[in-house]
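[Q] Does anyone have a clean structure-token version of this?
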Amino acid sequence: MDGLAKDRLDVTGEDVRSAMRRVPAAVTVVVIGGARPRGITIGSFVTVSLDPPLVSFNVQRSARIHDELEQAPRFAVHVLSGGQEEVSEIFADPDLSGAEQFARVEHHRDSDGVPVITGAIARFVCSVEAVYPAGDHSIILGRALELESSESGDALLYVNRSYRSLEG
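[A] Here you go.
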């Protein structure tokens, strides 16, 4: 392939990160409810299966939400819409408590107590189907139990260290 570096046997995590920065990803926020709601911005959300409806994403094991997410009876994945960059940044900040996160974001709670972020173009309510260790991350496999989706708007994208939308 023209323009690509030769294959190497000493690929580092930074090499992977640098290459993947150029691959657009939809920006999502995964949240858990309960007495101590918390969320995290994720860029690895994908559909795994349609029958049964399964989705997955990766979470760093050192993330504050990691252990609670594994044990949560339900969690929600919000696909952010163009213009929700600030929401993404709030949930990406590891220094904020869950209370501080939700104090800064318009939301309400569903009947199960899981936060619903206002303005997202889609929301998947899931149960944990399985968790797979993967290096310094875990792969969370979720079974979609409920789905809310907007008929308008486009997803917020993240590529090459900046937010983008299909509209501009």
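[Q] Thanks! Anything notable?
[A] The two ends are 30 Å apart (CA to CA).
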